[in-house]
Amino acid sequence: MDRIWRSLPLVALLVLAACVSTPFKGQSPSALSDDELLVELQSVYQQLGLSTAGLRQLRAMMPPPTLVITEHSFTTMSLNTDFVGDSAYTSGTATTTSTFDTYDQNDVNRSMNQLAQNIQLARINSLNSRRYELEAEARLRVQTRQRQEEELQAAIAEFFRVHPLLESERSLLVAILPWEQAASYRETLDRVGFEAESVLAAKASGSPAGRWYGIFQFRTESPTGASKLSSSRVRADLTESGGSTTLDLHSISGASGTVVGAVKDGGSFGGQLVLMGKTGLDTGITGTLGHGEIHLTFTKVDTATSESVSGILTLSR
After folding, report:
1. Which terminus of the chain has fewer CB atoms gathered within 10 Å of its CB, N or C?
2. 200 and 239 share a domain?
3. pLDDT for 92
4. What is the three-class DSSP state of 10?
5. Parts of the chain with a pLDDT under 70
6. Which whole-number Å values give the CA distances from 276 to 179, 216, 307, in the listed order?
7. Are 172 and 180 in contact (CB under 8 A)?
8. Is residue 130 classed exposed, middle or buried when 0-12, 13-18 and 19+ CB atoms within 10 A define those classes?
9. Does residue 215 share a domain with residue 122?
10. What is the pTM of this model?
11. Each residue of 10-46: pLDDT tens digit?
12. How far apart are CA 145 and CA 117, in angstroms?
């Protein structure tokens, strides 16, 4: 019974070794996102460390053999008595046989310790196999992205070779890029180049009419002073008719709106902003409209809730 009690810690280790698993066990590494791949790798590394430490502990806990030897002996005798006259003569043989038995007092502990070691080794082998799969997938992704980056840089160099005048218009290219996404980066670059040259051609005409790109920033403030900031990329198509200037606004998120007003002497602008969708805003807006930049601002206070909404619309081309 004492030997069984001493083996209980090993039983606990056996149970723990059998219960550990990784977050995405059974899933192909190629099916994991980058974040999931990193989480799985981290889990495998941690459990490899624990399993290796557990194996070392088990080896250190392996008790040495404690042999007990028992001896069993018995003697057999064979006697013969002869009578001669008044005398008796006895003769015979005696044979003593001894047997020795040995057993290990630590046999149960040693057997369970070895079983636990075998389980840990199997687990380490399984974790290493998973690690090799995950590391191979990580290397493949890094190599693929390095190759894609090299191809992209080559395509960008080719883009500026074909469109040398756009080299100095990188801010415009960055503003256009989110709107002209295509299936491949080469097609995307072609569309960006075409759009940029169209925008610059309209700018070169001297008229403000045409397409503009920029940012619409919003600030909402509650009566308690709590505020919320948000912004969205927008593009606008400017048209002029009968002394009126109209900006048709579209955000990258899908919202839309219009600004209708008039440009006064010196480029000052006053008009009305109407935003559709969740915002549902209708308010006056003022600012300046120049040859290369439009800067408009507004502030509106809800008289019922005392909540204020302000915004800045900045467009350029």
Report:
1. N
2. no
3. 76
4. helix
5. 1-20, 278-279
6. 20, 14, 19
7. no
8. buried
9. no
10. 0.63
11. 555 554 555 558 899 889 999 999 999 999 999 999 9
12. 41
